[in-house]
């Protein structure tokens, strides 16, 4: 069976994503994207009117992909809640291992100007979605008696997201792939 040819738009999105996450959005030029993608500048500007529009498309694609993955993991009810939360962290750390800040969303967020409202709002919605999903999982964990009753679910969900994000950053700076899993095991122990 013949492989479907990727569109120039998809090639540019993939190339720019890697460059923005590994090198930095601010320092990556459109000329570098042209060179790395082997797609003409005219063709790139046909699909994306500006570097900012390209970044917005990347963020939309990333949040959509991650939200789907997180939703799929949350639905794996044969796993414990603790195992599913651990999978969230694994997925985030596996997807972009060379991201400058450890987490691709953190990397992009800190590199965008305050005028990039769409990008910042999209990333904020992504994290709100994570918190909401974790709140539901924590409620399930309490119901299944995995966690102690009476936990402040909203605050714990925020703590887990913060722990994952901070853990991704520290895992990246320490170059220790066991850092985040160990951190989450400690957190799970505290919730029981």
Automatic annotation (TrEMBL):
Signal peptide: none annotated. One of its GO terms (molecular function) is DNA binding. Residues 29-48 bind DNA. Residues 6-66 form the HTH tetR-type domain. InterPro entries: DNA-bd_HTH_TetR-type_CS, Homeodomain-like_sf, HTH_TetR, Tet_transcr_reg_TetR-rel_C_sf, TetR_C. It comes from the Bacteria. It holds the Pfam family TetR_N. Coiled coil: none annotated. Keywords: DNA-binding, Transcription, Transcription regulation. PANTHER family: HTH-TYPE TRANSCRIPTIONAL REGULATOR LMRA, TRANSCRIPTIONAL REGULATORY PROTEIN. This is TetR/AcrR family transcriptional regulator.
């Amino acid at each position: 069976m013949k492989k479907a040819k990727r569109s120039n738009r998809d090639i540019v999105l993939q190339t720019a994503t890697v460059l923005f996450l590994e090198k930095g959005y601010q320092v990556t030029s459109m000329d570098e994207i042209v060179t790395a993608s082997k797609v003409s500048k005219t063709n790139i500007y046909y699909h994306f009117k500006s570097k900012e529009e390209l970044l917005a498309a990347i963020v939309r694609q990333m949040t959509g992909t991650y939200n789907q993955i997180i939703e799929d993991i949350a639905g794996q009810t044969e796993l414990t809640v603790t195992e599913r939360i651990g999978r969230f962290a694994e997925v985030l750390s596996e997807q972009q291992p060379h991201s400058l800040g450890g987490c691709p969303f953190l990397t992009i967020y800190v590199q965008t100007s305050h005028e990039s409202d769409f990008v910042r709002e999209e990333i904020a919605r992504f994290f709100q979605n994570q918190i909401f999903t974790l709140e539901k999982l924590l409620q399930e964990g309490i119901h299944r008696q995995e966690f102690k009753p009476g936990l402040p679910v909203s605050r714990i969900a925020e703590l887990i997201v913060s722990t994952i994000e901070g853990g991704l950053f520290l895992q990246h700076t320490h170059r220790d792939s066991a850092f985040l899993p160990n951190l989450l095991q400690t957190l799970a122990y505290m919730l029981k």
